[in-house]
Amino acid sequence: MRRRTFLAVTGATALLPAVVSCRQSRSGSSATSVPTPPPKSDAVPTAFADASIWPAADTYTTITAVSDRYLCGGARIKDALNVFTKGWCPVVVDISTLTTYAVLLDQKGAWVTRKVGLVDDDDMDQNSKGALTTIFMGSTLLDSEHAYLVFGALTLSSPSTQDSMRGSDFPKGTACPVILVKFRLSDGSIQAATTVADSYLVEGIEGLYLSFANGRSSLVLMGYDVNVESSQDSGNDYIALRLSVTDLSVQFDAHSILDNHDINDVRLCGQAIAYYVKGGDYAIMFLSDNKRERTGERYPIEVKDDWYYYKDNQDRESSSGSVRNVISGETIALKGDWKNELQSWSIISSDQQAYISWNGQGSSRSMSIRMPGAAAAALTWDGGNHKVPDGACVVGDVLYSFYEVKTSSSTSSNEFDITSISSGKMIADVQKTAITHGTKNAVTPWGWQMAGSMPQPVGLTTSHSPPRQHRHQPVLLCLPPRPSSHKRASPCIAEPSSYPQQSSE
Asked: String of b and e for 177-195 (b: at least 16 CB within 10 Å)?
């Protein structure tokens, strides 16, 4: 299946998601003007344009991270056709100038960048090129000055005509090196590049998770090399690294300790690794500082953003849990349906850390918003107290909820509303929109990014020409359960077209 995602932006901007129906442009259409800067860094838009701005072409793209005016992902680049299979390569985009940088290889095999334009797939030369490398997108992070991109680079014995960007499309057991690149946002230059794994199964690269630690002075990279939830030995079946953000040097590798002990049942827990010591009991090791402790009766769930979530005992039926701040030592008893509210990490990374959970099906569906370290959900909608949306996104204390409304047996419209999470009060009434919401969403002050329901590529478009029909399998941030008959949405990032009165005061 082909992957595609889109981004849209217009008017002014803000840190939120909404729903949008992306309209794709042809390369022959008029050039897209750069978006208007947001009125404030924390502006909250109440309406969005129904066209996207990147890319201004009908081509495959993906988004893996968004922050402020930048986004990271992948795209098919004409300039990369002789370097990477089908021209598929990592990109970093400055939305404020609509500048796209592609990460490429030079003739000496060094990672470099180049400013590139995007063209329609129909206008790309589809004849077999001499590319001997296939790229697989992994996780990405953005801070105020740099982007950190993880991807696999498979060296081929001969040029491939396979139209694939997914590791699962390759023969089982196919492996390749995993690369981590540091990209400077101010000038588009590569500051550092390193190989974090010499051989890693290509089908697992999409599942690698990169996160900040220690006040963003370190990076933590975690992932399984095989599609299992645990291992029976201490072999090289996982990546668990802490690296310096300065030069990407390895500060700590969990294998350096665990491979020297008689352990099994290794489990990755976000920014920690749990394991069973033979002849003893379970233990956990925190990647941020290498500290280890016996878990005793506790069952580790996840460590993220300095918060350690765990069940109070090993009883599978137990609903008692706690969260401990690993810096201060503060411990809080968890309330509510916390086991279901601590969801997996976002496919698209952003500055937003709230947990959005979707539970149940049909008339028993519910949605909860839980903030990091909170004892209970800040907001829960179960259909009785509030209609459960079809999609949602959180920015700070603001919740965007999206609804598909049937207008006839064959047509539907899209609406969204904006709610204060802390007060539960509506900031803006339900608004009709031409945007078709996706199942995952993330937004920055420069616009809103959304996509469909599968871990596939994302993009952005510009003109008002009608979209062509494609099978979209985009990537997004929040994934509510959807009936199989639900029509997949085109992924987009949409520019805000209006803000509430108070946002400009």
From this structure: ebbbbbbebeebebbbbee
